[in-house]
Amino acid sequence: MVSFGLPQQWNNAGMEPTRGPAPDVLKSAPKVLLHDHLDGGLRPGTVVDLAADCGHELPADDAESMGRWFREAADSGSLVRYLETFEHTVGVMQTGPALTRVARECAEDLAADGVVYAEVRYAPELHVRQGLTLAEVVDAVQEGFQEGAANSGGRIVVRHLLTSMRQAAPSREIAELAIARRDRGVVGFDIAGPEDGYPPTRFLDAFEYMRRENGHITIHAGEAFGLPSIWEAVQVCGADRLGHGVRIVDDVFDAVVADDGSVTSAKLGRLAAYVRDRRIPLEMCPTSNLQTGAATSIAEHPIGLLADLQFRVTVNTDNRLMSATSMSNEFAQLCGAFGWGLDRVEWLTVNAMKSSFLPYDERYRMIMDVIKPWYADQRS
Ligand SMILES: O=c1[nH]cnc2c1ncn2[C@@H]1O[C@H](CO)[C@@H](O)[C@H]1O
Ligand SMILES: [Zn+2]
């Protein structure tokens, strides 16, 4: 981990930043979210309701205590322990109506936070315990996204990424489903779960299938394991984007820091240079990284260095429930820590929209018609 000796203003999310755009401005700013887990973003009250419906036992029985429980239990400093908390979300997402409700509320909550485009991921294989087929899982989620977008006055577009779990027996079934549903809301394929011990090459067959079908790939890599995981994801598996990718910082050396704390130059190893030169998007999730131990504080999070060095950085929530966060909160924390203003927020948002798996013409329209005009308006 590099440290630039920046003042550590806070070391956790949830505290009020002391500088940066006002919270209501960050909330109304159009934002783009590429890395958000459906089963990591439930409303605490919905977990409680659905658990009562299906007889799932929870560690607490009211919404407020459950919200606190997720935040605290996920604050474990280890990805493996962080992932254990998902038992209480996945456990209540086993029927069509439950999945539709969670997806509808996800779209509504993101739209209320100013997100105009989101790619939301989940692992269909985790939702078949009560007999749903994998395709039925995707269809139930699609229904929810459509309802949520309609309830939000069409202010948000939501697409799915289908995830395979790394620790499961490798198969290409989920990749095949992503391709089968690509004209019905699904825009790509991902792998998630414990990184250390489960290299992405285990799923090479699925990634090769995606590429043969001209599909899109993002891979959780460089979160709980370092450069070899990123190298395999990019150079062997053909990842279009990296989920987290935060450990690419291990291949960045001799950063020169200016008086204002910004980084003016650094030496890049071959892999970091490749990732930057090829504009491979990094789906960075600062608060989540503090909880899993991938970073020590927001002020010391490598996103500051990587943004200053012009990597294709994007800002994301990962798991809004476990991190008690939102897109506007992630931006508030970052703007406070690094002194970023709306120009940086716009750059990060355009980065994300350029990096999305939507067709080019749709991406271009979102940038020109929705994102840029809002920021131009703020400047004038
Ligand atoms: O940050 C993360 N790293 C790796 N895996 C994750 C992360 N967040 C969530 N999941 C895993 O992805 C599954 C599908 O959404 C979740 O059930 C969780 O196990
Ligand atoms: Zn994730």
What is the CATH architecture annotation? Answer: Alpha-Beta Barrel
Major beta sheet, specifics? 4 strands, parallel
Name the overall outline.
globular
How many helical stretches?
A: 16
The low-confidence parts are 1-14
Within CATH, the superfamily carries the name Metal-dependent hydrolases
- The span between the termini is 40 Å
SSE layout and pairings?
Elements: H1 23-28, E1 31-37, H2 44-54, H3 63-74, H4 79-84, H5 87-90, H6 96-112, E2 115-122, H7 134-151, E3 157-165, H8 173-180, E4 186-192, H9 204-212, E5 218-221, H10 227-236, E6 241-244, E7 252-257, E8 263-268, H11 270-277, E9 282-284, H12 286-292, H13 303-308, E10 313-315, H14 327-338, H15 342-355, H16 360-379
Parallel strand pairs: 1-2, 2-3, 3-4, 5-6, 6-9, 9-10
Antiparallel strand pairs: 7-8
Helix pairs in contact: 2-3, 6-7, 8-9, 15-16
Binding site for substrate: 37, 39, 193
Biased composition (Polar residues): 1-12
Enzyme class: hydrolase
Describe the structure in brief.
The chain is α/β, with parallel strands linked by helices and 380 residues long. It contains 16 helices and ten strands. The chain has helices at 23-28, 44-54, 63-74, 79-84, 87-90, 96-112, 134-151, 173-180, 204-212, 227-236, 270-277, 286-292, 303-308, 327-338, 342-355, 360-379; strands spanning 31-37, 115-122, 157-165, 186-192, 218-221, 241-244, 252-257, 263-268, 282-284, 313-315.
